[in-house]
């Protein structure tokens, strides 16, 4: 229904649906039909893998669904998919921290997206694709004439970023450092085996 309304109203990419967990329970024929509509409609899908993996299927008998939208298939079909984190220290999910890196790490596991290109896509789902969902693509990124709002983390590549989920070293908003996390220091006081 939402896809059809998005198409007929012309709202298209200005429409965003969140969670879309039911897609993990749909039969393949119905899901493929829905996937075609999603792709044509231009709708954005926001997946929240932490809360969804904790809540979905909780009361189901076995076999249980995976609990999140079929983001891998949606991405492969050209749907703009973003990953988010909701329920920060709520009664529904008291473990929430607000870390989109943690959410992307969970999505990598549940959505079977652990290949190098798939992990790179997960990073796009929490950066570029999220900016597209929010309709701030024109302002997003580190380029001349853009507002210079970004976070700086210590990671060598997408896999390292999602695997280690390092804390933000700096948070920069409109060209100003607004937060800084000092690196942890580890000290060794004795040589193992040389005592």
TrEMBL record:
Which PANTHER family does the record match to this protein? CYTOSINE DEAMINASE (PTHR32027:SF0)
Q: What is the lineage of its organism?
A: Bacteria, Bacillati, Bacillota, Bacilli, Bacillales
Q: Which organism encodes this protein?
A: Paenibacillus foliorum
Descriptive protein name: Amidohydrolase family protein
Pfam families, alphabetically? Answer: Amidohydro_3 (PF07969)
Return one GO MF term. Answer: hydrolase activity, acting on carbon-nitrogen (but not peptide) bonds, in cyclic amidines
Q: Which residues form the Amidohydrolase domain?
A: 10-179
Q: Which InterPro entries match?
A: Amidohydro_3, Metal-dep_hydrolase_composite, Metal_Hydrolase, Metallo-hydrolase_Enzymes
